[in-house]
Amino acid sequence: MQYLQQILFVALAAVSVWLFARKAGQIRRNILLGKEEALNDQPALRWRNLLLLALGQKKMFSNPLVAVMHFVIYAGFIIINLEVLEIVLDGILGKHRLFAEPLGELYNWLINAFEFLAVGVILVCIVFLSRRNIIKLKRFISKDLNGWPRSDANYILITEIVLMSLFLTMNATDLVLQERGDSHYPATGSFYFSGLLSPIFSGFSDGTLIAIERTCWWLHIAGIFAFLNYLPYSKHLHIMLAFPNAYYARLESPGKMKNMPSVQNEVLYAMQPELAPTDAAPPARFGAKDVFDLSWKNLLDAYSCTECGRCSAACPANTTGKLLSPRKIMMATRDRLEEVGRNIDANQSFQDDGKSLLHDYISVEELRACTTCNACVEECPVSISPLEIITELRRSLIMEESNAPQEWNGMFSNTENNFAPWKFSPEERDQWAIQ
């Protein structure tokens, strides 16, 4: 019977890891559909960003209370899952609490620390569920989250509560079996929170206790494997992608916009024709119309989005009732990228589906509402830039489709002819001072 359990566990673990690896490979392929871009300079500063933004969650501490609660969940997820290593080895080798004997008193200290974190995670998840569903903070009831995105956040929080409750129940029944001297349950010393729960199970028979403990053990590890495979389909993929996204964050001055080298060269060659190469090719595309025209970093941003809505809450266009929502920009980019990925999976290569990110997923009205103030980028806790995607799509809209309001066209014309947005010649620009 023991060997059968080991075989079932190994099979469950192997299938879970294979499914996750396959989906992770698809996400990596989708991200690399973007244009190449070198973001590997200044490694020391990049590692600093990773430690401060992804691990230390520096930007979250603009609101200390929420930051501490978020850190409890984050630390709980990372640290408690160190226990998964023991569970995996127990499952493969047919052991129970494999590390208890070699670690001695340290083992008891570790499990107690895990239990304190588990209780913290449960309490914080309840608070976060309340903020979303009872208090209903404005950024959590936005129409951006209608349907699956709103349910997704609730599912994750409920799952975390269930996993932590299984962990505590497993320990509580284990303690009772230890006290009764069961040979399969070695003495580990008392655990604080599960010790408070253990009297609930003191009247149960040994067989019932073992059944409860084993059920919680299996559900706990099966839940973790299920959670692992749920992550790639969820906004909580940022748990993993926040680290590379912070490392590859742009290091230029905040708000600096990228010029198009091809346009710069055209201006240079017009002014100095002798510099123009004889074999100069025209640019393939101005700006971006679909995900293929964005850089791989823009696509990594889309997958790293936490859907927290801080960007949209800070956006002046969104605040004044405009259609633009930076969060929706990122979600739409990810949705389009996933659709492109399914197209590739079905056809071995991308087959034109008559759709594009511009127009089909993100509207002209949204793009025109952006003031390029950079507030969304400043607010994002994981260094995502909706602004880059907006500006690239808007370049395509204007330079490829000549689709701009008359007021914008007047400004473009004035800038080209008068070197300023106003319709005054450069020679008359100082007349206001003389008067």
Structural class: mainly alpha
> Beta fraction of the residues?
under 5%
Using DSSP, what is the number of strands?
0
How large is the count of helical segments? Answer: 21
Mean pLDDT comes to 87
Helix amount, in percent? Answer: 55-70%
Most strands sheet: none
Query: Structurally, how many domains make up the residues?
Result: 2
Low-pLDDT segments, ≥5 res: none
Give keywords.
64% helix; mainly alpha; 435 residues; 0% strand; Fumarate Reductase Iron-sulfur Protein, Chain B, domain 2
Summarize this entry quickly:
This protein is an all-alpha fold and 435 residues long. Helix content is 64%, strand content 0%.
Folded structure, characterized:
This protein is mostly helical. It has two domains: 2-31 and 63-234; 284-402, Fumarate Reductase Iron-sulfur Protein, Chain B, domain 2 (Orthogonal Bundle). Helix content is 64%, strand content 0%. The chain has 21 helices and no strands. It has helices at 2-31, 43-55, 64-80, 83-93, 100-103, 105-135, 148-179, 192-197, 206-230, 238-247, 261-271, 296-304, 310-314, 316-319, 326-347, 357-361, 364-369, 375-379, 386-400, 406-418, 431-434. It is elongated and about 95 Å long.
Helix and strand arrangement:
Elements: H1 2-31, H2 43-55, H3 64-80, H4 83-93, H5 100-103, H6 105-135, H7 148-179, H8 192-197, H9 206-230, H10 238-247, H11 261-271, H12 296-304, H13 310-314, H14 316-319, H15 326-347, H16 357-361, H17 364-369, H18 375-379, H19 386-400, H20 406-418, H21 431-434
